[in-house]
């Protein structure tokens, strides 16, 4: 698990270093001998096999944005990510219900949107901006928790607002001068607002159809599919929305007639079923599970199987976190020595090998949308440089080495025992004795996210809520986001006025290219201080059944885009 977003577990996979992967990053799977034709792709049933359920299927309670997952098939939002292609372009934000990605005021504190004409719900009634306003307002209700927190922070009056239930009234900072126009007034400049507008909280909800906490049983569709049945988000069946068409949605193809989402499956079972591709599994895809060692070992010798694997990235970084309020991590040279000593290849082997992870020396993921700016201030090669680490450690005042404690989760995976042991063994070569402090996952997250109990040294991870440097760097390094009561991700507890000011300056930028450059420059500046030791970025390799076509992994979230897939 990343700290906020789910990252596909790689635990238990053997190291398969150097194994040839199926496709390039963003590559498609399910290719056939004939060219895919969107005009003739309609029909059939697509099955999605998943380990995890969707949770409460209410747009207010879902924590998702812009990807091609199940919610995007039912809920359209003001904006979405680019569904029309894989690769880096799939990280772009594009219009969805709106005619464009938003009209900002000069200082990006006011954003205006206009709806496309002809939009309708599954029952044929028109979609209005009043419905979008109401959908956002109900997401503030304590009865409907789980959505992202940004609207509460960004909208004027959002911090105190408790939703429309129980006489709560409306939120004045969302204005609807007519049924096709909606205006948002923010507390501060936010150039990333178009990315936030991809979140399901921006899906329209008709007030007269709102059933409160029961709405998730049958939410009213604004997308290409409507809900037939929903077993608490564990198993969901969708069928076509008769009032949706490609003429009012240029992002989703909606090829299958039905989509069946099945969860609660063991990852190994998912891969076994997709490899076999028997019966309905021939027209199935993995919903949230990477291929495992068994599949990886077969790829080079089985071209037909290799064609059924797509490779992609999700913007995430696993890293070692320091709390400089705990000695000796208040000493920058100690942090630098550890940076030199880390054996990234051993860590990557611990999570499945080079087919499933790539070394990281920057905090930002290595994708242009985030503002990736290459740097390596403590070059140690793939296996670490213990000799250099010892020299820096001596300069720090520890010529005979030192003993430290590394806190980690007992749950196998990115923050688990295998990674902790790899770090322990690498640092031992540099004269640093590492005592391991294992905690069950709940205690681990509570302890590492509470400033008063935060350990000095632990394994962390972060995945962005959208592909931009803002939701990646601000929660980790903005001093104003230190949460003393818990849920804190600023492990360095850094509150540097200059860094805070640079975050504000980048947030004002509404041009994605300019913003990316600003975030990249800030990342490069922060990297010099060794507040963290980046370890790796995950790679996604996901499998489809033999009768699936036009399947590719989104660069937005690392999952298959269900809105473009077809089945034979």
Outline the fold blueprint.
Layout: E1 28-29, E2 45-49, H1 70-74, E3 79-81, E4 93-95, E5 103-104, E6 110-114, H2 129-138, H3 150-154, E7 174-178, E8 181-185, H4 193-196, E9 225-231, E10 235-240, E11 258-262, H5 267-276, E12 284-286, H6 293-298, H7 303-306, E13 309-313, E14 316-322, H8 332-341, H9 344-350, E15 357-359, H10 386-395, E16 402-409, H11 417-428, E17 432-439, H12 441-448, E18 457-463, H13 470-477, H14 497-507, H15 512-527, E19 532-543, E20 548-549, E21 551-552, E22 566-567
Parallel strand pairs: 2-11, 2-12, 16-17
Antiparallel strand pairs: 1-21, 3-4, 5-6, 6-8, 7-8, 9-10, 10-11, 13-19, 14-18, 14-19, 15-19, 20-22
Report on the architecture of this protein:
With about 575 residues, this protein is α+β, with helices and mostly antiparallel strands. It has a domain at about 60-215: 3-Layer(aba) Sandwich (D-Maltodextrin-Binding Protein, domain 2). The chain has helices at about 70-75, 130-140, 150-155, 195, 265-275, 295-300, 305, 330-340, 345-350, 385-395, 415-430, 440-450, 470-475, 495-505, 510-525, and strands at about 30, 45-50, 80, 95, 105, 110-115, 175-180, 180-185, 225-230, 235-240, 260, 285, 310-315, 315-320, 355-360, 400-410, 430-440, 455-465, 530-545, 550, 550, 565. Strands 9-10-11-2-12 form a five-stranded mixed sheet. Strand 5 (about 105) and strand 6 (about 110-115) form a beta hairpin. Helix 8 (about 330-340) packs antiparallel against helix 10 (about 385-395), helix 9 (about 345-350) runs antiparallel to helix 11 (about 415-430) and helix 13 runs antiparallel to helix 14 (about 495-505). The radius of gyration is 24 Å and the shape is globular. The two termini are about 35 Å apart.
């Amino acid at each position: 698990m990343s700290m906020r977003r789910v990252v596909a577990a790689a635990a238990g996979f053997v190291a398969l270093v150097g194994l040839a992967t199926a496709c390039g990053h963003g590559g498609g799977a399910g290719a056939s001998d004939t060219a895919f034709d969107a005009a003739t792709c309609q029909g059939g049933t697509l099955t999605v096999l998943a380990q995890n359920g969707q949770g409460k299927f209410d747009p207010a309670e879902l924590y998702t944005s812009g990807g091609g997952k199940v919610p995007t098939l039912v809920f359209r939002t003001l904006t979405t990510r680019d569904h029309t292609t894989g690769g880096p372009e799939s990280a772009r934000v594009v219009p969805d219900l709106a005619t464009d990605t938003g009209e900002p005021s000069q200082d990006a504190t006011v954003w205006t949107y206009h709806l496309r004409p002809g939009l309708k719900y599954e029952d044929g009634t028109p979609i209005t901006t009043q419905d979008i306003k109401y959908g956002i307002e109900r997401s503030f209700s304590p009865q409907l928790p789980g959505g992202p927190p940004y609207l509460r922070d960004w909208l004027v009056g959002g911090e105190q607002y408790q939703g429309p239930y129980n006489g709560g009234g409306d939120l004045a900072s969302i204005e609807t001068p007519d049924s096709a126009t909606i205006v948002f007034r923010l507390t501060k400049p936010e150039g990333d607002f178009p990315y936030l507008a991809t979140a399901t909280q921006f899906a329209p909800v008709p007030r007269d159809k709102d059933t409160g906490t029961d709405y998730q049983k049958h939410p009213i569709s604004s997308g290409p599919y409507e809900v037939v049945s929903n077993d608490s988000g564990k198993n969901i069946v969708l069928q076509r929305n008769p009032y949706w068409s490609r003429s009012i949605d240029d992002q989703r193809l909606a090829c299958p007639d039905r989509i069946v989402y099945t969860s609660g499956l063991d990852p190994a079972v998912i891969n076994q079923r997709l490899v076999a591709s028997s019966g309905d599994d021939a027209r199935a895809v993995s919903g949230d599970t990477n291929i495992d060692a068994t599949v990886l070992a077969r790829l080079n010798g089985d071209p037909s199987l290799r064609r059924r694997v797509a490779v992609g990235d999700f913007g995430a970084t696993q890293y070692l976190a320091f709390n400089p309020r705990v000695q000796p991590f208040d000493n920058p040279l100690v942090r630098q020595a550890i940076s030199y000593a880390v054996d990234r290849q051993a860590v990557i082997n611990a999570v499945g090998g080079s087919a499933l992870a790539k070394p990281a020396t920057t905090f930002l993921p290595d994708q242009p949308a985030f503002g990736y700016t290459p740097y390596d201030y403590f070059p140690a090669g793939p296996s670490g440089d213990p000799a250099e680490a010892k020299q820096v450690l001596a300069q720090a005042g520890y010529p005979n080495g030192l003993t430290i404690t590394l806190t980690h989760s007992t749950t196998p995976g990115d923050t688990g025992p295998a990674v902790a042991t790899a770090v322990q063994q690498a640092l031992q070569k540099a004269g640093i004795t590492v005592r391991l402090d294992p905690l069950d996952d709940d205690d681990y997250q509570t302890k590492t996210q509470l400033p008063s109990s935060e350990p000095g040294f632990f394994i962390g991870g972060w995945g962005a809520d959208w592909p931009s440097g803002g939701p990646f760097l601000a929660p980790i390094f903005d001093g104003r986001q230190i949460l003393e009561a818990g849920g804190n991700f600023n492990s360095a507890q850094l509150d540097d006025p200059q860094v805070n000011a640079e975050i504000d300056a980048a947030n004002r930028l509404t041009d994605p290219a300019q913003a990316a450059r600003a975030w990249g420059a800030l990342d490069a500046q922060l990297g010099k201080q060794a507040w963290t030791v980046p370890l790796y970025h995950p790679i996604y390799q996901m499998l489809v059944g033999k009768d699936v076509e036009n399947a590719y992994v989104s660069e937005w979230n690392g999952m298959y885009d269900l809105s473009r897939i077809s089945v034979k």
